[in-house]
Every structure is written in structure tokens, then in C-alpha cells.
Amino acid sequence: MPEVCLTFDNGPEPEVTPGVLAVLARRRIRATFFLVGQKLRDPAARACAERAQAEGHAIGNHTLTHGAPLGTRDAAEAVAEITETDALLGTLHGPDRLFRPNGGGGALGPHLLNQAAAAHLVAHRHTVVLWNAVPGDFRDPDGWVETAQAMLGAARETVVLVLHDLPNGAMRHLDHFLGEAEQAGARFGAAPPESCVPLRRGVAGVDFARYVMPGAT
């Protein structure tokens, strides 16, 4: 079983995120929460994000609305999805200024960013964290555990696992999944591998261009 970088997308959700945090605290697992910016306008949701940070979890930007991937948007719209979320995050943002684009169901490719968004991320020294395991808890709230276990079992490098603290019932299986994974030898709390970090504090890696729409603005 591999090392695992555990991440949660699309929160915070006051009905779900506190339960996720309780499970992580009980198991002493640190994770990264990539937040949808507009949700932070709800004081209850922001309180969840503040609790996550206070309990040692990292916080990142997952766009303002989680609409169409930024590579398919115009320049101003794409940049605003990043900047408005950064403003809402405020002190929740750590020194790495973590950012995760939305892929539309977990797909990787040049649809993730357009040229304007990519240039903004470089200029503002963001760190882009992608993924290599998306078990689909957002669409299969009961079957994702088996899928995730299979992904961990087949992994040959550190796994960046994407789950979602959404109110669809999937997270009621989180504790069971983590327990079985740990018993099988998985080690949670790892840093993401270089293959999943194409931009680090504004410095582009060799693969960064793969995630930027050519010629798009």
C-alpha cells in the first residue's frame, strides 16, 4: 500500500465537513481542503474552514463557483475565479497559496487552465496541486470505497486522493475506508508527488504546459 495525500474538494459544507474533521482528528490524519470560494460567504461554512485550519489541515483555492473548467473560460472570467476566492480565503491561505483547478469529473488535460489563469498563478506564486486518484464519491456515494481501495492497491507512487465533503452521504463511509486502508498498510499525510504539482510557488515544472489550453486567453 502506498503513501497517501488525502484531499477534499468542493466544501466547506456545514452538514458534512464537521463530521469529516471529527474522523480525521480521531485517526490523527492531516488533509488538504480545496474550497469553493462562494461557499465561504456563508458564516457557518467559513467556520468549518477556520476549524479545519485550526486543526492543522491545509486550505486551498478551488475556484469561486466550480463552474466550467478554466481552460474553457475567457481570460477575465477565469482570473476572477481565482482572485475572488483568494480574497475570500484571506488568512486561510497558507504560504504555498494552494490552488486546484476543477477538471469536470476528475479529467486531466489542457482544459484545466487558460493562458490568463496560468499567467496569474505564476505571477502570484501559487502552487497547483492536481490528483492521480478520483474514486468518484460525488457520483457513487456507496461504491466509492471499493474503487478507492482498488486505486490504492494498484498505486506505484504517492496517491493524491480526491474525496468530496458534500452532502450526498458518501462521507458516512470515510471512517470505514480510512480504517481498512490503514490496516492494509496505507500511510496518510504524505506530500503530493512532483507529478501532481506542476507549479510550485510560481515556478513551473516541465509538465505545467500540459494543463494550459494552447492559444487560449
Automatic annotation (TrEMBL):
CC per GO annotation: membrane
Keyword Cell membrane among record annotations: no
Record has Cell cycle as a keyword: no
CDD domains: CE4_NodB_like_6s_7s (cd10917)
Molecular functions (GO terms): hydrolase activity, acting on carbon-nitrogen (but not peptide) bonds; metal ion binding
InterPro entries for the chain: Glyco_hydro/deAcase_b/a-brl (IPR011330), NODB_dom (IPR002509), Polysacc_deacetylase_ArnD (IPR050248)
Record-annotated NodB homology domain positions: 2-189
Free-text function comment from the UniProt entry: Is involved in generating a small heat-stable compound (Nod), an acylated oligomer of N-acetylglucosamine, that stimulates mitosis in various plant protoplasts.
Name of the protein in its database record: Chitooligosaccharide deacetylase
Biological source species: Neoroseomonas lacus
